Amino acid sequence: MDSNYIFQKVKEDNVKFIRLQFTDILGVLKAISITADQLQKALDGELMFDGSSIEGFVRIEESDMYLKPDPSTFLVLPWNSTTSKAKTARIICDIFDSNGEPFIGCPRFALSRAIKEAGEMGFNMQVGPEPEFFMFHLDENGIPSLQTNDKAGYFDLPPVDKGEEARRDMVEVLQSLGFEIEASHHEVAPGQHEIDFKYTDALRTADNIVTFRIAVRIVAQRHGLHATFMPKPIYGINGSGMHLHVSLFRGGENVFFDPDAADGLSDTCRYFIGGVMKHARAIAAITNPTVNSYKRLVPGYEAPVYIAWSHRNRSPLIRIPARRGIGTRIEIRNPDPSCNPYLGLAVILKAGLDGIRKRLAPPLPVEQNIYEMDLATRKQQGIESLPENLYEAIDELRRDEIIQEALGAHIYSRFVLAKMKEWESYSSRVYDWELAEYLEKF
Ligand code: ADP
Ligand code: MG
Ligand code: MG
Ligand code: MG
Ligand code: MG
């Protein structure tokens, strides 16, 4: 997509505003809106902004940042402004510092860096995500509640409720945004949905996840609903995950596939698994980055708890879907949709590359249900658990130099600071559960 095409589209579609988008360290989408007549300046990377107000970015004295749009991400947004027919477009940007260097706090750069490293080893990572989310009603004041009026479950068919209608609308909007939707269905829990889109290279997928989250929320809102990517909004039912299907390609070839291996998996694939398993506990800090994330990672709700891999069952961290040939891939099952997708994919890729470099063979796959094993059996088989909570995950991150390197020192330190603050705020409060448990007992 060159700038001629962009200017032509802007004219044709009556685009009046352009949103220059990026995410902060926590994966929150930020945007600066410009008018179409500033577009050339923006495309030349000459637009400056003050980064000091963005979470985890910089100190006041070094706050001048430049946004450099990635022209291939230009999109005219399908929703009209409510007041006029004018349209808004978006372009995703990389951030540069005042010296014209890639800004070390830009999550998209962290991913680009890992992608470049993979490229030097001859690999190109492909990722397909399965984001899940809940849709809830708004109360009479317009505040999201935990109410759904649907009692449907996995793959249930209508009587269509408001949620189904909204989801169909989401699929259409996403398609008009260029997404190739592979599946969309009701999930296990009431009010829970999943929309799967086609895999592509890691950077594009991370961009897609960010776009997906915003599109889903906007469409839900238009249906009078609140869509949330919070991992575990309701105790006692399934939480929302975002499984990541991952493979490495070299040219048009999937190098995870080996037709001569008994299980069809190459050594490269095996070492990649070994790397992800070795770093899994630190990766969790990034792919499961909230206090609430760890309330999803408990036994009994189809979310992984144990660091193991399997061809057959869905209880471990990594499952190997049955497809071989071009579709050979691993499914990493702990990530949730509250994560920063740029950082999440950066740490997974980096862990996989570490495995390949050091030839880290994974342990034997575990084909029985790990939830039914007792602690002694798990110990004997060397099966470790994911972190129990955010604090434990951050602690692991502090000990894992490879994962720190994937983030870069700047993002690493800001991330840990922000997360420790979050943990302290959470852990010092007194909750309903404690009052119910202790108030009368003691
Ligand atoms: P599940 O069985 O866990 O529901 P799906 O069959 O729905 O998984 O797989 C979904 C994801 O896997 C999709 O995003 C799809 O595009 C992706 N996928 C397919 N082939 C590959 C591949 N070679 N590399 C990465 N992802 C892939
Ligand atoms: Mg699925
Ligand atoms: Mg599926
Ligand atoms: Mg699912
Ligand atoms: Mg899955």
From TrEMBL:
<dbReference type="GO" id="GO:0004356">
    <property type="term" value="F:glutamine synthetase activity"/>
</dbReference>
<dbReference type="Pfam" id="PF03951">
    <property type="entry name" value="Gln-synt_N"/>
</dbReference>
<feature type="binding site">
    <location>
        <position position="331"/>
    </location>
    <ligand>
        <name>Mg(2+)</name>
    </ligand>
</feature>
<protein>
    <recommendedName>
        <fullName>Glutamine synthetase</fullName>
        <ecNumber>6.3.1.2</ecNumber>
    </recommendedName>
</protein>
<feature type="binding site">
    <location>
        <position position="187"/>
    </location>
    <ligand>
        <name>Mg(2+)</name>
    </ligand>
</feature>
<feature type="binding site">
    <location>
        <position position="132"/>
    </location>
    <ligand>
        <name>Mg(2+)</name>
    </ligand>
</feature>
<keyword id="KW-0067">ATP-binding</keyword>
<feature type="binding site">
    <location>
        <position position="314"/>
    </location>
    <ligand>
        <name>L-glutamate</name>
    </ligand>
</feature>
<dbReference type="InterPro" id="IPR027302">
    <property type="entry name" value="Gln_synth_N_conserv_site"/>
</dbReference>
<dbReference type="Pfam" id="PF00120">
    <property type="entry name" value="Gln-synt_C"/>
</dbReference>
<feature type="binding site">
    <location>
        <position position="333"/>
    </location>
    <ligand>
        <name>L-glutamate</name>
    </ligand>
</feature>
<dbReference type="GO" id="GO:0005524">
    <property type="term" value="F:ATP binding"/>
</dbReference>
<keyword id="KW-0460">Magnesium</keyword>
<feature type="binding site">
    <location>
        <position position="314"/>
    </location>
    <ligand>
        <name>ATP</name>
    </ligand>
</feature>
<dbReference type="InterPro" id="IPR027303">
    <property type="entry name" value="Gln_synth_gly_rich_site"/>
</dbReference>
<feature type="binding site">
    <location>
        <position position="194"/>
    </location>
    <ligand>
        <name>Mg(2+)</name>
    </ligand>
</feature>
<feature type="domain" description="GS catalytic">
    <location>
        <begin position="107"/>
        <end position="442"/>
    </location>
</feature>
<keyword id="KW-0963">Cytoplasm</keyword>
<dbReference type="GO" id="GO:0005737">
    <property type="term" value="C:cytoplasm"/>
</dbReference>
<feature type="binding site">
    <location>
        <position position="302"/>
    </location>
    <ligand>
        <name>L-glutamate</name>
    </ligand>
</feature>
<feature type="binding site">
    <location>
        <position position="182"/>
    </location>
    <ligand>
        <name>ATP</name>
    </ligand>
</feature>
<feature type="binding site">
    <location>
        <position position="130"/>
    </location>
    <ligand>
        <name>Mg(2+)</name>
    </ligand>
</feature>
<feature type="binding site">
    <location>
        <begin position="197"/>
        <end position="199"/>
    </location>
    <ligand>
        <name>ATP</name>
    </ligand>
</feature>
<dbReference type="InterPro" id="IPR036651">
    <property type="entry name" value="Gln_synt_N_sf"/>
</dbReference>
<keyword id="KW-0479">Metal-binding</keyword>
<feature type="binding site">
    <location>
        <begin position="238"/>
        <end position="239"/>
    </location>
    <ligand>
        <name>L-glutamate</name>
    </ligand>
</feature>
<feature type="domain" description="GS beta-grasp">
    <location>
        <begin position="13"/>
        <end position="100"/>
    </location>
</feature>
<feature type="binding site">
    <location>
        <position position="296"/>
    </location>
    <ligand>
        <name>L-glutamate</name>
    </ligand>
</feature>
<keyword id="KW-0597">Phosphoprotein</keyword>
<dbReference type="InterPro" id="IPR008147">
    <property type="entry name" value="Gln_synt_N"/>
</dbReference>
<dbReference type="InterPro" id="IPR004809">
    <property type="entry name" value="Gln_synth_I"/>
</dbReference>
<keyword id="KW-0436">Ligase</keyword>
<dbReference type="InterPro" id="IPR014746">
    <property type="entry name" value="Gln_synth/guanido_kin_cat_dom"/>
</dbReference>
<dbReference type="GO" id="GO:0046872">
    <property type="term" value="F:metal ion binding"/>
</dbReference>
<dbReference type="GO" id="GO:0006542">
    <property type="term" value="P:glutamine biosynthetic process"/>
</dbReference>
<dbReference type="InterPro" id="IPR008146">
    <property type="entry name" value="Gln_synth_cat_dom"/>
</dbReference>
<feature type="modified residue" description="O-AMP-tyrosine">
    <location>
        <position position="371"/>
    </location>
</feature>
<keyword id="KW-0547">Nucleotide-binding</keyword>
<comment type="similarity">
    <text>Belongs to the glutamine synthetase family.</text>
</comment>
<feature type="binding site">
    <location>
        <begin position="245"/>
        <end position="247"/>
    </location>
    <ligand>
        <name>ATP</name>
    </ligand>
</feature>
<feature type="binding site">
    <location>
        <position position="243"/>
    </location>
    <ligand>
        <name>Mg(2+)</name>
    </ligand>
</feature>
